[in-house]
Amino acid sequence: MVDAELKKAFTELKVKSVETTSRINGVNSQIEQAKNRGKHAELTLSEIRGCDDNTVFYESLGRVFVLEPKEVIMNQLTSKISGCKDSISKYEEQKTYLSKNLKESENAIRELIESKKNVKS
User: Fold this and answer.
1) What letter does residue 54 receive in the DSSP assignment?
2) Whole-prediction pTM value?
């Protein structure tokens, strides 16, 4: 009876641990994507800053290109950069929370194994 309960609890903790690890990997992927988007926007902004004020800029909207002033493009890129930074900080908080959750699951598994060893002794 006790072994069945311990086995069930161990299985549940192991599943929780695997799910948390998977979610951490997903968050890491989202962090990398946000970093890449931010870096792309930073590089584009630095190139645009080097251009003359009379340079013509076009923004892509689906299959259409729309003429936009330099200031509008720069403001859009700046807001995109700040949005990416906000996303990264949000994802880092999620990752911290999930890491703590994973550590708690691992500790619970260890305690369960120790209690199982003590019961057998």
Assistant:
1) T
2) 0.79
> CA 80: distance to chain centroid?
17
Sequence-distant contacts of 77-83: CB under 8 A, at least 24 apart: 77/41, 77/42, 77/44, 77/45, 77/48, 78/45, 80/37, 80/38, 80/41, 81/38, 81/41, 81/42, 81/45
Which DSSP state fits 57?
E
Q: What angle do CA 73, 85, 87 make, to 5 degrees?
A: 110
The tens digit of pLDDT for each residue in 64-103 reads: 999 999 999 999 999 999 999 999 999 999 999 999 988 8
Task: Look at residue 59 and give its three-state secondary structure.
Answer: strand
Place of tokens 């019961």: 119
